[in-house]
Here is the input.
Amino acid sequence: MATIKDLDVQKLTDSVMEQVITLQRNIHAHPEIGFDTVRTAALIADQLREAGIETREQIGKTGVVGDIVVPGSTRCIAFRADMDALPMDEDSQLPHRSTIPGAAHMCGHDAHSAMLVGAARALSGIRDRLPCSVRFIFQPNEEALPGGAPAMIADGCLEGVDRIFGMHVWPLFDTGKIGIIDGPTMAQPDTFRILVKGVGGHAAAPHACADPVVCGSQIVNSAQQIVSRNIDPIRSSVLTFTQFHGGSADNVIPETIELRGTIRSFEKEVGETARRRLVEVAEAVATAHQCSAQVEITEGYPVTFNDPEACEEVRRSVSAEVPLSDEGEPCLGGEDFAYYGEKIPAAFMFLGNRDAQKGIVYFCHHPRFQVDDEAMPVGVRSWIALALGAG
Here is the structure.
């Protein structure tokens, strides 16, 4: 059995980086959305098999699972990467920029997959020195509800796994570091739609109408007090309106308007309170304006919770190779990695991906988002160190 001290993790990382970069470029140039990650999954499966790793395809529809089984080991840890791209266009002049209109890897999933394949290759070469079995999970459809994790779990990707780890490139702190925090790490991202119905008519005769535009405006204003007056200020939540649609002419009060937005929270009870109060406020304000309000709320992924013991395993293992960032803090974004953490102990890491001198400063989902090439070997090295430090 090897330890980090027994092996040159940097040398192991260097041995696979050319293949990692090539794979990342390939996936980036050919982005696939949702569960339609057929090409990406095939590339990954081929490379895992080439490395002598037992590989299963079509897990969770288009997911891939690879296993390095250590004979006699009673423990198995899993590493997870997502594969899917976003339904948006890329604004870059990179030679490997997206070749698919309306699809782009603007959240780093191309790098996540390539880094994990690289780590799998490196670990396969020293499988006789691993302290436990390692499973590599490549998941589709992280970006859209219902997520890809439930389908992967339903197809058995966690069977026999004791603990699972995930990693995401993170532009909020500098390249070269890993961030990890205990407890709630990413929020539950709910969305809502409010349809306000009134009585339309001529803009010159508002007294003969029930104006849904005015009503909608008051719903937006009144809802701002939900977080400040109904949620304990020590507990975090966000309620944000992002869309207001209605009307088609300057001189016509419309019959209906539509509001959309999001509610985000780190605690189940807080989210329940915010959702309940939004319905109550919208309906009450609508009644006061002689209108009606129909509220539809779609609950997002659960809160991503980092198990403290799993986090300590990351700190103990990874810090021997990669400095830990002190800038890590909970994020109100959402992640379907949360579903894995509901089944077994889990920890989700952040990989620094910021270099202002290179212009790599844009956050995930921005059309100019870019993965720093120097971040990828840090990610691979972290995965290798974590596998060697398990036990």
The chain has two domains: 4-186+303-389, 188-298. The CA atoms of residues 317 and 389 lie 5 Å apart. The mean pLDDT is 97.
